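User: Could you walk me through two proteins back to back? I'd like the raw sequence and the structure tokens for each, with a short line separating them so I can tell where one ends and the next begins.

Assistant: Of course. Protein one, sequence then structure:
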Amino acid sequence: MQLLDGKFVSEKLKERIAIEAAEILKNTGRKPHLVAILVGHDGGSETYVASKIKNCEKVGFNSTLYRFENTITEEELLHKIDEVNKDPETDGILVQLPLPKHISADKVTEKISPEKDVDGFHPVNLGRMQRNLPSFLPATPYGILLMLQEYGIDTAGKHCVVVGRSNIVGSPMSILMARNTNPGNCTVTICHSKTPDIKKYSLDADILIVAIGKKNFITADMVKEGAIVIDVGMNRETSSETKSGFKLYGDVDFEHVAPKSSWITPVPGGVGLMTIVGLLKNTLASAKKEIY
């Protein structure tokens, strides 16, 4: 078993991003600029946004955080996004999900200009991705591709099973792994909560990508010997063992699955850190006008 170490790879890639950001500053007199919008005080969202802002600073980007209370109306939020869309100094916009129930996440996603959609969720970017055209890729799947690339893992001709069909991870991941690219060129099966006997499919996976949002959902008897296992799960539970008061668990029972795997991502220290790299890479590409 070898570890797909998100900490090691993300630090390496951030060093490269910092070099490119310094080059942009030298040539244009400005830094790449990411705007984050946070609504409410969800603990997980606060942590993720703080980490994104901190990483922007680390690679030499400018960042701006707009915070709003849960009471903000949908109209007010959409107006703010419109304002940021029109700001020529902004390269990327992310609105941290989840949003309060009275605000439509779809409306918010579609309001962000595709040219600044560095989370890669806009239907225009998803459509371009599906057609293998230049686009901002959803940050988590992009981070996974970068990790596979960095470790030189050959995916062509492999059977990739994706467990989970969310618009943020599972669905785009399945498209990216099937595309005629490297990483990619897999035969892809997608499973979800209504799939009977997921084990039947997961046992056949050369590459198993799990994003179903259930702690330790994938157990050792569901994984074949030598499989590559990528755990996207981030399940927070309160814990007296940690300083933060909570502990993160993956969707994969790491302790028992790891010995059977050829490669596996840990939680924490795996895909979560690569998601931030995906976001930074998209923001950099936007600043360089590489996509649009």
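----
Protein two, same layout:
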Amino acid sequence: MTETLRTFRSWLMELSSWERALFLPLLIGLFAYLFWQGTIGIFNHFFILVHTRTISDFFTSFVCTRRPYSVGELKLGDYVYFSYRGERQYPQYGVANGELLVKIVAALPGMKVKVDDRYVYINDQIRGAVLHTDRKGNPVDYFHYDGSVPSGKVFVMAPHPRSFDSRYWGFVDESWGLYKCWPLPLSDR
């Protein structure tokens, strides 16, 4: 290695001053470009950038893993990205099979969830309201439930009161693919 560096240095010294003036910035630029491409390539190998489309989410851009997580690896409050595959379809709200959503884990397996005609309770504490109409006044059905979160599923919500989430369409199954996310700073609306 040191012999290679000596050879390169002697070759560099043989160049005229204007050749060195051209060569060094090109060399530095090439190394900077390769470093940048390598960094981006490594990032893209492990992460994906996700941008939400709805106005109900507090954050609109997230960095998400490319590795799916099991329900057992998640904690309350984690942001998760998943592909909706539920029985109910709500294309008018961006919730139909294949839609990519980001929500917050509000309840894990074994936790008590109750969704009645007014509120969502998690472990007997009110966590949000249930709305019966959308912004246009159209009726919206909600998820009627009173029991524990089943194994392999999570209950997700978002902070906006009009978020279309588990209180309307039910649990997110681990088979939908749960990818952990982190909101990007300054991406809130």
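The chain has a mean pLDDT of 82.

Let me know if you want the two compared in more detail.
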